[in-house]
Amino acid sequence: MIPVFLAVLLTVAQDTSTIDRGVRIGIIYRPGVRPGLVMLPRAGMGLDSVRAIVARDLDYSDRFEVITLPGGDSIRLASPSTGTRGTGTRRSRSGTAATGGAQAGAGGTLNYPLYQALGADFALDITAAGDTTVATLHDIAAAGIRRTVRAKLLRLGDPDFRQAVHRLADQALQAALGTPGIAATRILFVKDGKVYHIDQDGADQKLVSSTDRQAMSPAWGANGQHFAYMEFQAGKGWLYLQEMATGKRTAVSTTGTALDFTPAFSPDGQTLAFSRATEEGTDLYTINVKNNCCLRRLTVGRFSDNLSPTFSPDGQRVAFVSTRPGLPQIYVMAADGTDQQLFAPFDYGVTGASNAPEWSPDGQSVAFHRDVAGTLQVFVLDVRTRTVRQLTSVGRNEDPTWAPDSRHLAFVSDRSGYRQLWIIDLDTGRIRPLLQQSGARLPAWSPRLSEAPSSTP
Amino acid sequence: MKSVSLLLALGLGAAVMAAASCGGNPPPPAPTPNADSAAAAERARQDSAAAAQAERDRQAREEADRVAAQRRADSLAALARAGEEVRNTLAAMIHFDLDKSNIRADDMGILDQKVAILQANPELRIRVAGHCDERGSDEYNLALGNRRAQAGKQYLVSHGIDASRIETQSWGEEKPLVNGHDESAWSQNRRDEFEVTSGGDNLRRP
């Protein structure tokens, strides 16, 4: 059993050194503006794992300074151990009186001035009332309860348990800050030719590929209930749509005649844009996936390739990669293929190849990777000013994908010695590994998963 | 040697004399010296001669068959060797420079040999698969691999091979030939592979 505060300290130390090693370029670091949040300790109520998941979610949101009370028993990483905690002995240190005194009494009021002194702006109290879990958010400055959220949590072994807890964390964050969180999201990725998904906190990795054929380029549908991906088959590249809940998959019509790859959904979910490689090279097409009709060609490259489409969130524009300047660079066009123009500026003959664009959910940025001195680095294009900034500089960093909050990016990096998935917060520059396995690549971050797709077949 | 032939000559002489003495001195009547038995003996003698002749013929035929079979086997082996050689020539890979899809001058000879093989085997159909090294972008490499496959095909077509006989495919960087992270591995992985899709039996030498 490792108290979370220790883990947090270790993580912070590691992140700081990571940042020092170079991932500072382009990060707008605003220290000290994040509100403090304290998780209230509650002994013996069987919700330790819920508290641990929520605390980690709030920490990973990078929007709070999560304060751990002295004694460290407010949050635990392990599963419930009701009634076995030696709270008495643990509290025999200097923090004892303070913590004990600040505990919510039977009446449910807090010692607000004390928490204020600890630097907390919010206190989150998670308790159980029958089969309902109650999350109470206290506003310390206002010395009162900001909001109470009730949720029927599933049993620990239920496949949707973690997502339900993540949704509770998002509700708490929304109550505190008025902005939606990203706790209830997942990331699709490819490893050893198979598609997997994983919760944004690195838990619950699951295989979603249903064949042994090599797959690439998973892409979420806008509602998070299905995804598209590409599969090699008989010398061609096939595009498939697959429902997340049932695993049922259907081939996109007209696929299988050429090498089709890099599918991308339009925000309304009607249209799938993709790249098709033929004798003429690679060009962009769209197809209506609602009615399985209306194949349409958007680019005519002839001597250049056009690939890797990504829709703007209003569905009006498509950013993509084109080799028309010689090296691949980031271009943009109207969603019907007209008005094609350079998007991310570059110096001819100096700037390296740019690839893998993804438009942010807020529409303001396009993340991509660019060859810098023979290795790849993640860049972000400001859509309004059309300026680019480099986010990474340690190791090889590629294939960025936006979280729904448009401030976190998951990407592939070999900074730890082998390629794996990492998450960076653009506001603080904090970087954390998403998973510790080698060979994960081509990540795709889901939209917010409000429903429970995996438990409603 | 001399003594042996002398002995042989003596022996032969003795036999001749014995025959002569037999001729002069009618032998005592055989136990059943009738005409039938004489004819039977004659038939038996002739039969045995015929049998010997048949045996000789059979042996000669067998020997001829054996030689013919050996010749066939030899020529089949030679043919197989030729087919193997043709297949190897057909499968020889060509390689590319980093992020390039143009055919290198030193690879043109390899492709010219494939042109000759395709011309000598009109039923033969092939697939050209383009591959990339791990350095480029994963998805861009599918487009680059496609360019490489098309470049290989285009060379063959421009040298007179019907385009319908050549399929193309791109694997991007998904199927490295060599697992390594240095220039040696990378340069081997930037390649076109050539694979027979049909008509690959009994390949003729150009």
Put simply, the count of helices of chain A is 6
Q: Give the total of domains of chain A.
A: 2
Q: How far apart, in Å, are the first and last alpha carbons of chain A?
A: 36 Å
CATH structural architecture of the domain at 83-198 in chain B: 2-Layer Sandwich
Gap from first CA to last CA of chain B: 58 Å
Mean pLDDT of chain B: 84
Percent in strands of chain B: 5-15%
Approximately how much helix is present in the residues of chain A? 10-25%
Q: Encode the helix/strand succession of chain B as letters.
A: HHEHEHEHE
How many strands, what sense, and barrel or not for the largest sheet of chain A? Answer: 5 strands, mixed
* Rg calc of chain A: 24 Å
Shape, per Cα inertia axes of chain B: rod-shaped
Output the structural class of chain A. mainly beta
* Rounded radius of gyration of chain B (Å): 38 Å
Helix content class of chain B = 55-70%
Tag the structure with descriptive keywords.
heterodimer, A: 457 residues, mainly beta, Rossmann fold, Neuraminidase, 4-stranded antiparallel β-sheet, 29 strands, disordered N terminus, B: 206 residues, alpha+beta, 60s Ribosomal Protein L30, Chain: A, 4-stranded mixed β-sheet, 5 helices, 12% strand
How does this model look, in words?
With 457 residues, chain A is mainly beta. Chain A has 2 domains: 32-177, Rossmann fold; 186-455, Neuraminidase, CATH 2.120.10. Chain A is built from 6 helices and 29 strands. Chain A has helices at residues 4-20, 48-60, 87-90, 96-102, 112-117, 161-177; strands at residues 36-39, 65-67, 122-129, 132-139, 144-151, 186-191, 194-199, 206-207, 215-220, 226-233, 236-243, 249-251, 259-265, 271-278, 281-288, 293-297, 306-311, 317-322, 329-334, 341-342, 354-359, 365-372, 375-382, 387-390, 397-402, 408-413, 420-425, 431-433, 441-445. In chain A, helix 2 packs across helix 6 (161-177). The radius of gyration of chain A is 24 Å and the shape is globular. Chain A starts with a helix and ends in a 12-residue tail after the last strand. The model of chain A is unreliable at 1-25, 72-107 and 453-457 (pLDDT under 50). Chain B is an alpha+beta fold and 206 residues long. Chain B has a domain at 83-198: 60s Ribosomal Protein L30, Chain: A. Chain B contains 5 helices and 4 strands, in the order H-H-E-H-E-H-E-H-E. Chain B has helices spanning 2-24, 35-91, 108-120, 140-158, 183-189, and strands at residues 94-95, 125-131, 166-172, 191-198. A 4-stranded mixed beta sheet of chain B has the order 1-4-2-3. In chain B, strand 2 (125-131), helix 4 (140-158) and strand 3 form a beta-alpha-beta unit. Chain B is rod-shaped and about 110 Å long. The relative contact order of chain B is 0.13. Mean pLDDT of chain B is 84; it is low at 1-24. At the A-B interface, strand 13 and strand 14 of A face helix 4 and strand 3 of B.
